[in-house]
Write a structure and sequence with these properties.
Layout (H helix, E strand, L loop, with lengths): L1 E6 L3 H6 L6 H12 L5 E7 L5 H18 L4 E6 L23 H4 L2 H7 L11 H17 L10 H17 L6 H10 L4 H5 L1
Parallel strand pairs: 1-2, 2-3
Helix pairs in contact: 2-3, 3-6, 6-7, 7-8
Length: 196
């Protein structure tokens, strides 16, 4: 496997992030690397503050294009979380969040959840958009359980894929409670959480 920070499905967002890559380059890479039996792990930061709804819609559509080109590609989905920076934060969110002043504040549950992107409570990310991001992540990780989970029994993979295939095929991600339950039942590894 090789990790790539693809970040977004929008060329405008990539330019604003100063990523110096394009969505076409990511698609070409996804297709080309498949020929060498290397699994790409693409990370995406979803919920761009300028227009989180459009960014989410475009990035989900882009991820679906990657999966058509290379079904083995692994996808890491994260909310856009700003980090304090002396030159200003990407997305022009300076002043939108007051960061902690002390180590004790940073160690609180609120800021732990913010840092690990579990419950960031971002003022520019509407709840319905956050739920769509989270639900899409649940569906895609069930449809294609990570190959990094070498201890996951075959029956578990089949169950997750069966439960999620109709959701992914139809683009219906709302309220995937059966997938939440199934992932807990099989204790599916989540590389995104393990890497934070």
């Amino acid at each position: 496997m090789i990790f790539f920070g693809a970040e977004s499905g929008s060329d405008a967002t990539l330019a604003a992030m100063n990523k110096r890559i394009t969505t076409d380059q990511t698609l070409q890479l996804a297709a080309r690397i498949r020929k060498f039996d290397i699994i790409p792990e693409f990370s995406f930061v979803v919920g761009n503050p300028a227009d989180p709804e459009r960014d989410t819609r475009e990035t989900i559509a882009f991820i679906r294009r990657i999966k058509r080109l290379n079904p083995d590609a692994e996808i890491i989905v994260q909310h856009y979380i700003p980090t304090p920076h002396p030159d200003g934060m990407y997305g022009h969110v300076d002043g939108a969040i007051r960061f902690p002043d002390t180590p004790d504040e940073w160690a609180s549950e609120r800021w732990l959840n913010f840092t690990i992107r579990q419950d960031p409570r971002l003022p520019w990310l509407p709840g319905r958009v956050k739920r769509r991001i989270d639900n899409f992540e649940l569906v895609i990780n069930s449809r294609w359980p990570t190959v990094q989970d070498i201890h996951l029994p075959r029956w578990s993979r089949v169950m997750l894929q069966s439960l999620s295939s109709w959701r992914y095929a139809s683009g219906f991600y709302a309220a995937p409670v059966e997938l939440e339950w199934a992932q807990k039942l099989v204790a599916l590894r989540k590389p995104r959480w393990e890497s934070l």
